[in-house]
Amino acid sequence: MNFLKPGSVVGILGGGQLAKMMSIAASTLGYKVHIYAPEADNIASEVSARFTQGSYDDLDALMKFSADCNVITYEFENIQVETLKKIEKKYVLRPNARALEIAQSRVAEKKFAEKCGAVTAHYVPISKREEIEASIAKLGADAILKSDRLGYDGKGQARIDESTNLSGAWMAVGQRDAILEEYVDFEAEFSVILTRTFEGNVIFWDSSKNVHQHGILKQSSLPAGPLIDSQRSEARKLANRIADELDYIGVLTIEFFATGNGPVFNEMAPRVHNSGHWTIEATVTSQFENHIRAITGMPLGSTRTLSDRIEMENLIGDYTDQLDNIISDNRNHLHLYGKDKIVEGRKMGHVTRLYFD
Ligand code: AMP
Asked: What pLDDT score does 153 carry?
């Protein structure tokens, strides 16, 4: 077997909850984790062997960090791709910088997905305020304007309808490159989460039904229902094609709208994903463990689901008044991320509930 030997160092760029959960999985497998993050009080370094505090623009610090790691991975998309390309020339970066480069731009990822055979919402790239009217004439007034880059959890988005003040919408996306998307009249949302090894083996978890509120994931649940189940195999084929095309290593997430006309590609994340948190308790091998297995060259663990009914609920903003109820139900697994400040709209933790009868 040709995998990184125990005690090797897994580097993670980012110090949030995804990095924390990857770090726990990596240390369980016998690896040392080195976190690189700008914040001294980040939640991932609390559970990791090593920590470098540095900005994502500090190439010297990043190179020094990389030299300490046997493999480097990342928990989020908004790191300069040029920097990652420099790291990738000398060190092992998984997934590769190309995957991140495509996922950083909503326009680029839609074009790429279309090339791989995806159906996407109709869209128009926007670079100036004046282009919005003409694009609405093309797409219809029922639309969403989103910043092309740096948007997450519904941030940098504005819903557009006939009564919207377009200058306000342009301000809301930060007056920068954007994408105008037709509003998709979907029945439900789901994600395909896969892991691809460096030999090209691909394994999927089941697809949960995902419910968003104000653009933020609120709940993922299984069974996902007949519509999603009937669209899962087509969505998986596309996700597999995307992963192969990118020569991808690690966990890849693709979010879909389930519509009356089949699955519509929404977006991709070159990383573990919030809609896969239920895999920690409810499958044989979690998304975090298989990501670490893939990037360290280990064979993958089974993704088999262990319960017929599963609900994962995000704790967003002030969750404190729910705590008593959560911990007094013995089917619940509580994850609090340890963030010091409760902020409205901030993901503070999640709860996974497994039903056995
Ligand atoms: P996104 O950041 O693009 O994933 O958007 C967050 C959420 O907003 C999605 O999960 C959907 O619930 C909703 N959304 C985004 N784009 C569209 C669209 N084109 N049509 C309908 N709903 C959308």
From this structure: 64
